[in-house]
Design goal:
mainly alpha, 15 helices, Fic-like fold, Arc Repressor Mutant, subunit A, 3-stranded antiparallel sheet, about 375 residues, 5 strands, 2 domains
């Protein structure tokens, strides 16, 4: 990696675009610090993957991991929605926040659909385009060619191309550059550790910026998709957007440093630190989920004959920690009055708390569970 060249600038009349070099080639990993971080990252991902195998009903908890990723990835792009708001139904979201809410829901749908598509499609431009199409469907970027590579020049930062921070490659080279990423992804001739590979792929994708909108979100989503496709993770449980959002300036600076100084090592070190921290946090979160699950299930045993219905509500809450009385009725099949009694019991046990403050259409939240995903590292 010592002789790495990121690319070169191409004069396009009144501006210069950056043309990245292809990455599908032989790489030499020659930095001991990088190798040490790689070893630690591999160990932590292995721990996270093993931990997830021993968690019953892990699909319940994955939905919350995806939700947090959707919120943090969109937050980097300026979308402002918190966990409680994102969990609400559309009609319960205030009008001024609905666009942000829609973007979060699209991100969740895009991730879920992409994971499903991986069973039939390889990590490819086709998969990336379909993911992008879902991401931009019916939201603010819907007129910016959802599911299609751009056919015009874009730029990053600045009010216009004249004062842009970075100008990606000309649109006519996108198909070749994305094809190069595909070849690199599936190249078994030149061995390179997978965490280094996806670190390079993420950098290259963000540099190509193949879409008119949504590049950052798709690029971060690709990290998880790659790890699942390569079976490094059996479940989609590692998401780096929280780390990138908390270190946003460093994230952008390190990406830019590759282009300006050919410093791919610094980017990969930052990326691997993110993998290590995120995996460690993931293990801790899963451990705390199991402890909380055991605690609340023990708590509701005092409800006697009502315990069974309370446990049904708890199962729902571990998937979506926001609930109202009609949902309780739907889950348990009980009357309105009994549903209110169940909620009252869970409030008295300090499992649920009401968040609207209104007399009608009350919404309740499972705060102790939500807080495991709302906090930073």
């Amino acid at each position: 990696m010592q002789n790495f060249k990121a690319g070169y600038y191409v004069n396009q009349n009144y501006y210069k675009s950056f043309q990245p070099e292809y990455i599908n080639k032989k790489w030499l990993l020659d930095d001991m610090e990088l190798q040490s971080l790689l070893s630690k990252a591999d160990r932590q991902i292995g721990r996270l993957d093993m931990f997830s195998e021993h968690i019953p009903d892990i699909d319940l908890f994955i939905s919350m991991h995806v939700l947090k990723e959707a919120i943090q990835s969109s937050k980097i792009e300026g979308t402002q929605t918190n966990m409680e708001e994102a969990l609400l139904d559309k009609e319960d979201v205030s009008q001024e926040k609905r666009d942000d809410w829609e973007e979060i829901q699209n991100y969740i749908s895009a991730m879920q659909r992409a994971i499903e598509m991986l069973k039939e499609l390889p990590f490819s431009s086709r998969l990336i385009k379909e993911t992008h199409r879902i991401l931009l469907q019916g939201v603010r970027g819907e007129h910016k060619l959802p599911g299609e590579f751009r056919t015009s020049q874009n730029w990053i930062g600045g009010a216009s191309i004249n004062d842009a921070v970075f100008i990606p490659p000309v649109h006519t080279s996108i198909n070749e550059l994305m094809s190069d990423i595909e070849k690199f992804t599936h190249n078994d001739i030149y061995y390179l550790p997978d965490l280094i590979k996806i670190g390079l792929i993420h950098y290259q994708f963000e540099t190509i910026h193949p879409f008119l909108d949504g590049n950052g979100r798709v690029g971060r989503l690709l990290i998880t998709l790659y790890l699942v496709e390569k079976e490094i993770l059996k479940q989609p449980i590692l998401y780096l957007s929280d780390f990138f959002e908390r270190n946003k300036t460093l994230y952008y600076d390190n990406l830019m440093r590759v282009r300006t100084k050919n410093d791919i090592k610094q980017w990969l070190k930052f990326f691997l630190v993110g993998v290590i921290e995120t995996a460690e946090t993931g293990v801790k979160t899963f451990d705390e989920i199991l402890k909380l699950k055991s605690l609340v299930e023990d708590k509701v045993q005092v409800l006697g004959s009502k315990t069974n219905n309370a446990l049904k509500v708890l199962t729902h809450l571990f998937k979506k920690p926001v609930i109202d009385v009609s949902t309780v009725m739907e889950i348990t099949g009980v009357s309105l009055r009994t549903a209110y009694n169940i909620i009252s019991d869970l409030e008295n046990l300090e499992i649920l708390s009401e968040i609207t403050g209104s007399k009608r259409d009350k919404i309740y939240v499972f705060n102790n569970y939500l807080s495991l995903f709302s906090r930073g590292k």
